[in-house]
Amino acid sequence: MDNNGNGNYIDLINDLIKGIFNDAIRASFKDPGMAAFFLKTMLWQKKAASVRQENEESGMHVPPVMILSVTDRCNLHCAGCYAQNLPRAKEPEMSEEKLRSMLKEAKEMGISIVVLAGGEPLVRPEIFNVTKDFPDIIFTMFTNGTLIDDKVLLQFKSQKNVIPVLSIEGYEETTDLRRGKGVYEHLQRMMAKLNEKGIFFGVSMTVTRSNYVTVAGEEFIHKLRGQGCKAFFFIEYSPVRPETEHWVLTEEQRAGLLKAMASYRERLPGVYVAFPGDEKAFGGCLSAGRGFIHVSASGNLEPCPFAPFSNTSVKNMSLKEALQSDFLRTIRENHEELMESDGGCAIWKKREWVSSLLEQA
């Protein structure tokens, strides 16, 4: 039994990661160079898993995934955006040097997948100066796509380990309603350029009760695949603003989404990922370093992007030390209390409990 109360969940996570890269290879069969890259990546992921296991046996749990918000700034003002609505104090962003040193430590500990988030990551185009130093870490960059230009396209082309993931809400009316007029058409142009240059890219869809039928529907997936998209991230909306609680998926819709994804994996080659997805299969919430950890733009180590609570920062201590905080350990040890029951983010729903743990730490 591992120190998180679930003897096999680590193996399940490793199998999930292996499956994702197997799917990426299948989706890249027409591009031998990209398929070979993902095959090499699987070897790197296997090595990282071994490092994490060594740490586990020595009493230190390390998650495979880090969500790194490189900035809180964004050039758009999307309705319901968690990053713009959560109560975070305004602090200076981590420097390029600090980002590099923190990622070096993360790699040495066995963290092998980094989700670049924000804000809008491309507000800081210098992030490519950092990612180029870590070719064996997979960086998925979640971007609104509006700041992609020819220079950025060249970076994506030369750094295969940095995978652009464009945010889209469905067709034009729905996307522009949430993100701003003209965003959908711009995304169509960017996808065409990414496809033309042979860049492996994906899309991220914030799934709400109202757009579920569209974004989870096969017609929309076929359209995106026809545009060259090979990875599909379904992010369930979490109601960080009380008046948006009716946006959250119903239990029926959540089950339908997972069923549709399983069907697509079998019939339509591509990478399909849902967040939070069915965390019940892993014994509860994977936040707080159990499966992933969040590092804020200022360097605070937080359980999850939707839970801006922290008592440690990589600005003034090592990542290793920060990961072992009593606050995060207590959340990990109570993961069964954070089962996804009726949609949204469980840890955000229990934020008062999480906040009380912070006061006790």
Protein model, in words:
The chain is an alpha/beta fold and 361 residues long. Helices cover 43% and strands 12% of the residues. It contains 15 helices and 9 strands. The protein has helices at residues 9-27, 32-57, 82-85, 96-109, 127-131, 150-158, 172-179, 183-196, 212-215, 218-226, 251-267, 319-323, 326-333, 346-349, 351-360; strands at residues 65-69, 113-117, 138-143, 162-167, 202-207, 231-236, 271-275, 292-295, 301-302. It has a 9-stranded mixed beta sheet with strand order 7-6-5-4-3-2-1-8-9. Helix 1 (9-27) runs antiparallel to helix 2. The protein is globular, with a radius of gyration of 19 Å. The model is unreliable at 1-6 (pLDDT under 50). This is Radical SAM protein.
